[in-house]
Amino acid sequence: MIRLIVSLSALALAVTAPLADPARDYADNCQECHGAERLGGLGPALIPQTLGRMRGPNLVSVIRDGREATQMPAFDEILSAEQIEALTVYLKEPLAEVPPWTEAEIMASRLMNEDYTPVDQPTWSSDPMNITLAVETGDHHVSVLDGDTFERLDRFATPFAVHGGPKFSPEGRFVFIMSRDGWVQKYDLYALQEVGRIRAGLNSRNIAISHDGKWLAVANYLPNSLTILSTDDLSVAKVKEVKGKDGTPSRISAVYQAPPRESFVLALKDVPEIWEVFYGKNPPEMGFAHDWRMEGPIKTGDPFPVRKITTPDYLDDFFFDQSYEYVMGASRSGDGGQVIDLVIGQKTADLDLPGMPHLGSGITWKYGDTTVMATPHLKDGAVTVIDMSTWQTVKRIETLGPGFFMRSHENSPYVWVDVFFGPNKDVMHVIDKESLEIVKTLRPVEGATVAHVEFTKDGRFALVSVWEDDGAVIVYDAETLEEVKRLPMRKPSGKYNVWNKITFSEGTSH
Ligand code: DHE
Q1: Whole-angstrom Cα distance, residue 391 to residue 371?
Q2: Is residue 419 part of a domain?
Q3: What is the number of domains present in the chain?
Q4: 366 φ, ψ to 5°?
Q5: Quick check: bond before 223 cis, omega within 30?
Q6: pLDDT at residue 55, rounded to an integer
Q7: What DSSP designation does 10 have?
Q8: Under 8 Å CB-to-CB from 25, ≥6 apart: which residues?
Q9: pTM of the full predicted structure?
Q10: Is residue 317 one of the residues assigned to a domain?
Q11: Ligand 1: distance of its center to the CA of 143 in Å?
């Protein structure tokens, strides 16, 4: 009898529980915000290229419980656990065909803020050069901080999942912010207002601004393109398809500005090449025209001519010396690196860089009569310090685990490096620039991820993120290393000081 009841109830469940049909469930519940093609709309694109970083259980809990402080509702009362599980599998399937994202589609996505009113002067009385932005990834906002008082001047919504450093216009008035979904937002710091936004790619990596502030380059994974926008009105100046010399299409890992060269330099994911895209002087005016035979042909009449430099290995993480002649690149295998001379377009040195260094967050400082560059490793607990005149390793400093970000300031005797991964993710090391020894290890919140540092304009204070949803930015006295203030924030990630950025401080990433 008992067995009969159990089987009957199992039968009843099988009859009443809706069968998982993820395509139908998507169309009924998700497409209104995330788009019929899963390429985003009000909500982000839901394709492997954008979800790859959202692990399975996280995706289940976002669908089931919703995402606080966003428009994402909870679906636990609409979809069964089985349906949600099937939906996560469906969302991780690659699209059969990626739609075109050409100049026409990009321009059609542009949304200018009709309420935006430009102003002549800042609408606030803080030092405009000491404004510091804190990206809060917990609820997709940016806090605009007065770098002297740490008072919050504004807190504005950004597109979903901002990645990479925001880029300031040369006078520090406007800031451009990019999300992994390819949206680029322009914000006026003087007026404390959004100017507009445009979707420059479907899945993007980062942005770079030209030294004269006229152009913004957006590095895309999807499609394989570089979008160049006019910073003025966010209109498209050019969409460059990225194909290596042999025609192989490639994603762009990152784009950087090279101010003295009046060019953007691109790290490519799928071909062993570095690209240089000129926006200013003609390449021959740069004094290395003799070298063109080894590169792809330059299209005459193109306002953004491309130079393609073949590299001995895939190099998709970069660091430039202060002259922007040399590019240090980490090899894909994570067991070494190379120095490419951009003037002659050739490798000039090998680097002893094991443990997958994160060159993108490297920094430099004067060390005796030379300049050193230091980078944390993503795969092991170490920071490598390299002499930039000989490219030899000066020291490998052991840390309590792999780190992600490093920072210093010209006026500070210390370098700060986090331990982003592993059991010691709650520590921040402070390294003496002269002795190259760790002089202090801070552990401000036991068990919380503590990462990324930015200095104030004068280097007096260091701002550290407690990278948790109920996190904070902690302000430290950069000399005594004592805590001065704690500003509650929603999963703060990077912080960016206007002065340090626009003056290319050697202690910060560019
Ligand atoms: Fe980043 C900068 C690449 C994962 C937060 N990250 C950069 C830059 C590159 C890069 C090339 C420099 C671009 C710039 O600022 O213009 N990041 C990568 C990766 O390849 C990697 C390892 C894998 C990926 O999925 O993209 C990666 N990055 C992450 C994260 O998981 C982080 C910690 C959290 C997040 O928000 O995605 C993260 N990356 C950041 C931040 C910066 C950044 C905060 C800007 C640092 C700065 O001080 O300028």
Answers
A1: 10
A2: no
A3: 1
A4: -75, 135
A5: yes
A6: 53
A7: H
A8: 79, 83, 86, 87
A9: 0.88
A10: no
A11: 19
Atom of ligand 1 nearest to the CA of 317: 11
The answer to whether the CB of 304 falls within 8 A of the CB of 277 is yes
Alpha carbon of 165 to ligand 1 centroid (Å): 8
Q: Which amino acid is at 408?
A: S
Q: How far is CA 57 from CA 26, 45, 60, 234, 346, in A?
A: 18, 18, 5, 37, 46
Q: Is 25 left (phi over 0), alpha (psi -120 to 50) or beta?
A: alpha
Query: Which of 416, 381, 415 lies closest to 398 in space, CA to CA?
Result: 381
CA separation for the pair 213, 304 (Å, rounded): 15
Report the alpha-carbon distance of residue 202 to residue 141 in Å, rounded: 21
Q: In testing the pocket of ligand 1, which one of 162, 163, 497 has its CB within 8 Å of the most ligand atoms? A: 163
Residue 296 burial (C-beta neighbours within 10 Å; 0-12, 13-18, 19+):
middle
Query: What phi and psi, each to the nearest 5 degrees, are found at residue 322?
Result: -65, -20
Complex-level ipTM beyond the 0.95 threshold: yes
Query: What is the number of the ligand 1 atom nearest to the C-alpha of 256?
Result: 16
Three-state DSSP at 83 gives helix
For ligand 1, the distance from its centroid to the CA atom of residue 338, given in whole angstroms, is: 21
- CATH number of the domain that residue 43 is part of: 1.10.760.10
Per-residue pLDDT at 295: 45
Give per-residue pLDDT as tens, 200-244: 999 899 999 999 999 999 999 889 999 999 999 999 999 999 999
Place of tokens 């006229």: 214
List the domain range (segments joined by +) for residue 56. 2-91
Residue 185 lies in a domain: no
| Residue 392 C-alpha from the chain's centroid | 29
The CA-atom distances, in angstroms, between 392 and each of 350, 371, 452, 508 are 9, 12, 27, 22
**From atom 49 of ligand 1, which residue's Cα is the shortest distance away?**
165
Specify the DSSP class assigned to residue 114.
Answer: T
Contacts of 503 (CB under 8 A, 6+ apart): none
Distance CA 455, CA 433 (A): 16
- As a whole number of angstroms, the distance between CA 225 and CA 315 comes to 18
Please check whether residue 376 is in contact with residue 404, taking contact to mean a CB–CB distance below 8 angstroms: yes
Read off the tokens for 349: 């040195």
Burial of 41 per CB tally in 10 Å (0-12, 13-18, 19+): middle
Q: Which residues line ligand 1 (CB under 6 A)?
A: 53, 137, 163-165, 206, 254, 360, 404-405, 452, 493-494, 509
| CA distance between the termini of the chain | 74
Q: How many residues comprise the chain?
A: 510
Span 155-200, pLDDT tens digits? 999 998 899 999 999 999 999 999 988 999 999 999 999 999 999 9
Flag whether 66 is in a domain.
yes
User: How far is the centre of ligand 1, averaged over its atoms, from the C-alpha of 247 (Å)?
Assistant: 28
